[in-house]
Amino acid sequence: MFSKTLHISSSPHIKKDVSTDLIMKNVVYALLPVVLFSIYAFGINALLVIATSVFGCLLTEHLLCRWSNRESTISDWSAVITGILLGLTLPPIFPLWMTFLGAVLAIGLGKFVFGGLGYNAFNPALVGRAFLQAAFPVAITTWHPSFLEDRFFHISKSVLALPFAEPIVDGISGATPLSAFKFDKITAETSDLALGLISGSIGETCSWIIVLGGIYLIYRKMMNWRIPVAILATVYLLSGILFLLDNQVYPSPLFMLFSGGLMLGAVFMATDMVGSPITPLGVWIYGVFIGLLIVVIRIWGGLPEGVMYAILLGNALTPQIDKIIRPRVYGTKR
Amino acid sequence: MFLLAKNTFSHGIHPPENKEETNRLPIRQFPFAPLIILPMQQHIGTPSQIIVKEGQEVARGQLLAKANGYMSVPLHSPVSGKIRKIANVPVISGQMVPGLYLEPFPFSGQEISEGKPIPLSASPEEILQGIQDAGIVGLGGAAFPTHVKLKIPEGKKCDHLLINGIECEPYLTTDHRVMLEQADDIFMGIRYLLKATGAKEVIIGIEANKLDAAEHLSGKIPKDLPVSVQVVPVKYPQGAEKMLITSILGKEVPSGGLPIDVNTVVVNVATTAEIGRLLPHGQGIQERVITITGPAISKKGNYLIPIGTPLRYILEQVGASKDICEVFMGGPMMGVSASSLDISIVKGTSGIVVFGENDTKKTEKIYPCIKCGACVDACPLFLNPSKLGILAKSEAYETMVEEYNLMDCFECGSCTYVCPSNIPLVQYFRLSKGIIRKRKANSQKSNV
């Protein structure tokens, strides 16, 4: 009567309805509002930069898999995330050929040489950006005002610059709030910062949309809430103390919180599961460490912004944290 | 009234319970199959030793095989009939083990032959002997000989007796029904257990999804017994001894130790009922309650089934659909896949969960570990399954044991359940433990 051959499997025979590609896909969903707002703010230039970055990441991932005789892993969505994140950290009129090069480096050097998804020690998008910052310091600090009237129709000349040509800087450019503060002690209105009305990197300007994406991922249990909380709280507290000591020299903690790449980095980059510690205590240490570095670099460092380096250094510390911080095993002494 | 505790162990998971389809269905007697298949290996320990001959006629309850040493229990005839053949019989592992085929007499009666009754006035040793003689093993699924577990080692003492009515495995409702329908047997069993262990206090632990059972049992506690019922929040794997002890007593069993190291003995509630029913009559186990459920079964329910009833016969009787493709003996979290329908149910079979062709997901793609930490948050023993999995893959078995406490893992499968990358973690650990045990045995052999 029963003719089918029985399927044999090892227990457990049921599984929670969650998968790695589903997590990755949801990170992309959480990033979409950020992408849409940045296109709204910076127009067609931002769209081109993000698209190029995503394309570069996917192409690199696909070709590297093929060349090493592996099945292509672009369907796991992780390369898309790297592409979007890299694009979001770049200035709105960043040359596309540089963007593409950054994407190739992000996947090739940041991910593939370590062994691909799950094995990368550093956030690949930040590896790509670190390379771009070292190689093209002028282009990556050339800013562009947001909400220009012709932003949906006018493609900036510098975006379409020929590879390795002399850097072309478009007529209009402006400083970001952090560099304005660093070099001229001018601070921006916190509300303008949080609402994304002030220029900056493509996807860093609108804090509340970034936070919304983070809340969505935390609600879906696809992000470790401790990481952004630890980073933001550390930055807030430390800069708050400094501000109380001397509010002429040090910026207000809210300005620190809503300016630059802090939100994007704390919510979407430091939370990269692969590069962050695995235990709750380890994660707190990691978050506080990154927060400290951000304040130190921003306030005393030579650069206006330190989020990228802080997270990369946090990534570097992760294996050690995981080695030292281990949960007490049940039934053993505290 | 029972005590509603907030206490539970840390970590663990919440799989869908799927108990509602059978938890209201009373236990029903299952018909005798035309052929009974009895392996001698129905418990952890040495297989029982056959004492009957081919062609011999036996009565229901008669001894068919005797215990083969201390770590063994006897086997009684589940039906009146004739020994057809003494031969190797198939078991769930796919192996053939010594056993016998028994053909029931048609229309045979239900009377059970009795042995030497064990009165409540008997000594602890006599009670333990009676428990062994009745062929009793842990009915929760472990099939560990109960008399061995109840033997308090020299220098230790038992203060707390925990009766395990947790039944945290999804789908299973046998213990639930036993608690609702066999309260008197349970309290009689507790009397024997109190005597055997010398415990001062008895706590019946029940999960909050069986409040009716908790209410029923607490209403029936005899005045003279030091028994209380404690309800704990629903969580898997709370039915594991260590987790239950932590939930109810707030203590941790030391790594590598046993419950008795925290002066506690844990006994499954159905096992307790069986002790209470069999010992006053000197009988042996002939049948047990089994939940038969799953999407591919039309007559789901809790059945009292004679030991040795073939799986194929059971599935025919309960209206299994023709396209069944997965059959699990036990619950879906820790149960074992049946590789063939020619095996029979044994004393340790707590459930039969059946899935049809379209009820199970196809094998999902395995991704690399993304270190999301879900397994670390799930492991009730606070191990690091992610790290253990990576070590297993690189065959670093010694490191797994020495630095990451692999041997503490009791294979509840929580880590595998939550892993988004579909990494078969608990399977790795099972294999690794096997390899380590083998290496240890080999090195001991070469040292001798």
UniProtKB/TrEMBL annotation, chain A:
<keyword id="KW-0285">Flavoprotein</keyword>
<comment type="similarity">
    <text>Belongs to the NqrB/RnfD family.</text>
</comment>
<protein>
    <recommendedName>
        <fullName>Ion-translocating oxidoreductase complex subunit D</fullName>
        <ecNumber>7.-.-.-</ecNumber>
    </recommendedName>
</protein>
<keyword id="KW-1278">Translocase</keyword>
<feature type="transmembrane region" description="Helical">
    <location>
        <begin position="283"/>
        <end position="301"/>
    </location>
</feature>
<dbReference type="GO" id="GO:0005886">
    <property type="term" value="C:plasma membrane"/>
</dbReference>
<keyword id="KW-0249">Electron transport</keyword>
<comment type="subunit">
    <text>The complex is composed of six subunits: RnfA, RnfB, RnfC, RnfD, RnfE and RnfG.</text>
</comment>
<keyword id="KW-1133">Transmembrane helix</keyword>
<feature type="transmembrane region" description="Helical">
    <location>
        <begin position="193"/>
        <end position="218"/>
    </location>
</feature>
<keyword id="KW-1003">Cell membrane</keyword>
<keyword id="KW-0813">Transport</keyword>
<keyword id="KW-0288">FMN</keyword>
<feature type="transmembrane region" description="Helical">
    <location>
        <begin position="225"/>
        <end position="245"/>
    </location>
</feature>
<dbReference type="Pfam" id="PF03116">
    <property type="entry name" value="NQR2_RnfD_RnfE"/>
</dbReference>
<dbReference type="GO" id="GO:0055085">
    <property type="term" value="P:transmembrane transport"/>
</dbReference>
<feature type="transmembrane region" description="Helical">
    <location>
        <begin position="126"/>
        <end position="144"/>
    </location>
</feature>
<keyword id="KW-0812">Transmembrane</keyword>
<dbReference type="InterPro" id="IPR004338">
    <property type="entry name" value="NqrB/RnfD"/>
</dbReference>
<comment type="function">
    <text>Part of a membrane-bound complex that couples electron transfer with translocation of ions across the membrane.</text>
</comment>
<feature type="transmembrane region" description="Helical">
    <location>
        <begin position="27"/>
        <end position="60"/>
    </location>
</feature>
<feature type="transmembrane region" description="Helical">
    <location>
        <begin position="251"/>
        <end position="271"/>
    </location>
</feature>
TrEMBL record, chain B:
<comment type="similarity">
    <text>Belongs to the 4Fe4S bacterial-type ferredoxin family. RnfC subfamily.</text>
</comment>
<keyword id="KW-0411">Iron-sulfur</keyword>
<dbReference type="GO" id="GO:0009055">
    <property type="term" value="F:electron transfer activity"/>
</dbReference>
<dbReference type="GO" id="GO:0005886">
    <property type="term" value="C:plasma membrane"/>
</dbReference>
<keyword id="KW-1278">Translocase</keyword>
<dbReference type="InterPro" id="IPR026902">
    <property type="entry name" value="RnfC_N"/>
</dbReference>
<keyword id="KW-0479">Metal-binding</keyword>
<dbReference type="Pfam" id="PF01512">
    <property type="entry name" value="Complex1_51K"/>
</dbReference>
<keyword id="KW-0004">4Fe-4S</keyword>
<feature type="binding site">
    <location>
        <position position="379"/>
    </location>
    <ligand>
        <name>[4Fe-4S] cluster 2</name>
    </ligand>
</feature>
<dbReference type="InterPro" id="IPR017900">
    <property type="entry name" value="4Fe4S_Fe_S_CS"/>
</dbReference>
<keyword id="KW-0813">Transport</keyword>
<comment type="subunit">
    <text>The complex is composed of six subunits: RnfA, RnfB, RnfC, RnfD, RnfE and RnfG.</text>
</comment>
<keyword id="KW-1003">Cell membrane</keyword>
<feature type="binding site">
    <location>
        <position position="415"/>
    </location>
    <ligand>
        <name>[4Fe-4S] cluster 2</name>
    </ligand>
</feature>
<feature type="binding site">
    <location>
        <position position="409"/>
    </location>
    <ligand>
        <name>[4Fe-4S] cluster 2</name>
    </ligand>
</feature>
<dbReference type="GO" id="GO:0022900">
    <property type="term" value="P:electron transport chain"/>
</dbReference>
<dbReference type="InterPro" id="IPR017896">
    <property type="entry name" value="4Fe4S_Fe-S-bd"/>
</dbReference>
<feature type="binding site">
    <location>
        <position position="419"/>
    </location>
    <ligand>
        <name>[4Fe-4S] cluster 1</name>
    </ligand>
</feature>
<comment type="function">
    <text>Part of a membrane-bound complex that couples electron transfer with translocation of ions across the membrane.</text>
</comment>
<feature type="domain" description="4Fe-4S ferredoxin-type">
    <location>
        <begin position="400"/>
        <end position="429"/>
    </location>
</feature>
<dbReference type="InterPro" id="IPR037225">
    <property type="entry name" value="Nuo51_FMN-bd_sf"/>
</dbReference>
